[in-house]
Design goal:
alpha/beta; globular
Length: about 250
């Protein structure tokens, strides 16, 4: 049976942690994968770490790592991908504005795609400003990167783990996972998912991290894609190469 590790980055989400177990138990029962969860504590300053430890004591399918200081969402995701030793890695936010149950919709596509990701566009339950900034950022990103994705920032994704750890990582890269997967020659598909109003914690949304910084990052990713090295070997008499292909 193929295995998956779901990464949950956490930064000051103490109110959300107790609800994770109830949210994941139905998913554990129905998934066709051998599933575990890795919570990455990104240097939280509240009681998140204590609650994460209690969660892991309650259910052996939950594990955690904890940073010594806050390093940002992309770092937390990268650490989770690096720590996982499964066939697949997933990603979901701790605030549960998306549901683990929607991962079940992704599973039929895993044999055909390298990245299966959610699309919240039709069901978005965020503030007007957040929806507007997200829509504009997605339009700007697709105009330059041509990844064909409608909701690049949706925090509900499953990737092949070997591909995930090969992606270039930088601050803000979590917004560009689809484009980077395509740059690596991978295939992706978007699936419509549910979205719910935030009920715990505070949004990390501000003008800089939701609009201005992503626009500059988009230009950097466009440069990276234009400068990307890609090749396919047609033939070889190198025994090492032929050995790897067999």
């Amino acid at each position: 049976m193929a295995a998956i590790c779901i990464i949950i980055p956490v930064y000051n989400e103490e109110e959300a942690i107790p609800g994770l177990l109830d949210a994941f138990i139905p998913y554990f029962k129905e998934t066709t994968l051998e599933a575990q969860v890795l919570v990455v504590n990104d240097g939280s300053k509240d009681s998140s770490l204590d609650r994460i430890r209690e969660l892991c004591r309650q259910d052996s399918r939950f594990h955690y790592i904890s940073f010594e200081s806050n390093r940002g969402l992309s770092s937390a995701i990268k650490a989770g991908f690096d720590e996982a030793k499964t066939d697949w890695v997933g990603y979901i936010d701790a605030d549960l504005q998306t549901s683990p149950m929607d991962f079940l919709k992704f599973e039929p596509y895993l044999d055909s795609y390298d990245l299966v990701m959610g699309n919240r566009a039709a069901n978005r339950k965020d503030t007007l400003m957040k929806r507007f900034s997200s829509r504009f950022a997605n339009w700007f990103r697709d105009s330059l990167l041509h990844d064909g994705v409608h909701d690049s920032g949706c925090p509900l994704k499953i990737l092949r783990r070997d591909l995930a750890v090969s992606l270039p990582f930088f601050v803000g890269m979590h917004r560009f996972i689809p484009a980077l997967v395509l740059m690596k020659g991978g295939k992706l598909i978007e699936i419509q998912v549910s979205h719910f109003p935030r009920t715990t914690g505070k949004s990390k949304f501000n003008l800089w991290n939701r609009l201005l910084s992503p626009l500059m990052d988009t230009l950097a990713v466009r440069w990276m894609m234009k400068r990307n090295i890609s090749y396919r070997i047609e033939s070889s008499d190198n025994p090492l190469h032929n050995q790897e292909q067999s």
